[in-house]
Amino acid sequence: MCGIAGFYQTNFDYTQDASFCLRLHKMRDSLLRRGPNDNGLWLSAHCGLSHTRLAIIDPLHGTQPMSRMGCVISYNGELYNGTDLRRKLSGSSLPFETTCDTEIILNGYLAYGTDFFAELNGIFAISIYDSRTDVLFLVRDHLGVKPLFYQETPESLVFGSEPKALFAYGIQPRLNRESWGEVLGLGPARTPGHGVFADMKEVLPGHYLTISPEGLKDCCYWSLTGTPHTDSYEQTVEKVSWLVEDSVTRQLVSDVPLCTFLSGGLDSSLVSAIAARRFSEEGKILSTFSFDFVGNQQNFRPNAFQSSLDRPFAEQMTAHIKSNHTFLECDSRSQADFLLDAVLARDLPCMADVESSMLYFCSLVAKTNRVALTGECADEIFGGYPWFHRKELWSKNHFPWSYDMEPRLSLLRPDFIRETHIEEYARAAYDHSINETPVLDGEDPDEARRREISWLNVRWFMATLLNRMDRTSMYCGLEARVPYADYRILEYVFNIPWEMKCRDGIPKSLLVEVGKQYLPKEVLYRKKSPYPKTYDTGYERLLAERLRRILQRPSSPLLEIVEKQKVLDFLDRPKDYGKPWYGQLMAGPQMMAYLLQIDYWMEQYHLA
What we know:
The protein is of the alpha+beta class. The protein contains 25 helices and 17 strands. It is globular, with a radius of gyration of 24 Å.
């Protein structure tokens, strides 16, 4: 996995101005955490490309940017059908000099042009400059697992894996009314394609951009569609089983140490069990990691969102699959401290302590592994969240994970609310997404609504978690793979009727069917438990202390958007650990953490 960045224009010669070579160096250096093993630069009259490499496949070769026959590529990602594509290309006259997938993509483009992008199965953000036609292509994977931001300036189109690369070019971070709609109306979610910062955009999932002397063109090479599901339940289970097993197996390819994240829930346990079985067939032992918080064994109290601790189930699973398991714990101070690192990793306020703790855990995993398979995205694709099952949630005419805007507005200054129209911005984003839902004519109202909920989850909630996973892992030089986020799985499951997805009232019943040959019953039928959080009340006190100090600082940029007394009153009230602010986790303590992140973000990025 890697970081890419660059720029393009056709009005002058970059090589005649030394400042552009310096800018390219700065852009590359801003992404070194994404690729600490190698790096490279390439500059021509009209295009500059840079690359930082986290070497996973063929570590000794595959240095980028890579050039062939007048075309240059800088690529971030992994191909999971590389062997199939290499075989397809073997009949062409194009030679292979490495075993890395970068060369497969470049040779595929040379052989088939942009049609080849639709044949890629993996996670990727790609830049290809074709000097023969003076055209730059920016390509993003089907589900948007890998990020790719861009912005047009008066002299260049500038792009990079993260906003920080664009800032390193010289673009100044700016906010506008839309920015606050994103951060406070939708955050930590983000409108697809919106870069939050003024004038910044992101290549849409399943799209590629063509940038040429004629201008910029946005092309869609893949999208979800509504199609009738004609398979029987038995055929559906068989197809889902094959898809999941194939996806996990393909993603086990690595020339460096690989592990899995194992919480003891259905999703990660199934990925780990499939991986462990494949490892065992090769005489190897899988390494697994689980995460928790110091003191949770004593402090935990069951609630509606988290009915049990993960550790007992993780212990059962590691014994079942005979993995080399490591339990990792995060203390409250580390979790609070990493809130600020999480902002630097994302260049934005993010999922607060859900993100800071993941960043901490990834920093520990990265000491021994470069690749990790995770259980992300199963709930969004197979329908695991409460809002799929509780009609009072899925029938609400708003995003079901943040339908109540009152907590978001309660601490803000009235004049700020009037100026930014946050509530109206969130409503418009929801309405726009609903209108984009891939429909299937003839569905009854409940089935049609669940299709809308599935679409919202994929387009918004899943994207938020994928962003979290990418930034927290890559900031530590760790590649996180997401087997459930295989576009083939989503294409098939999206159109399966709800009665099959929740057969006999069992959530994610299709995954349960797949897991019957891999998992013990206690794990197979365990009630869904979200990503863990700390139940240490000392963590809440620590956040409150830090927020009070910020509010006492007259220069704090946070005071531009919140009412000081309202926040102080909020800090003096008991915090609700059950009622969510975003999803299932963003309750009172997470709201404090988010405010801390906003203050730090505004200060560090000079946004006040």
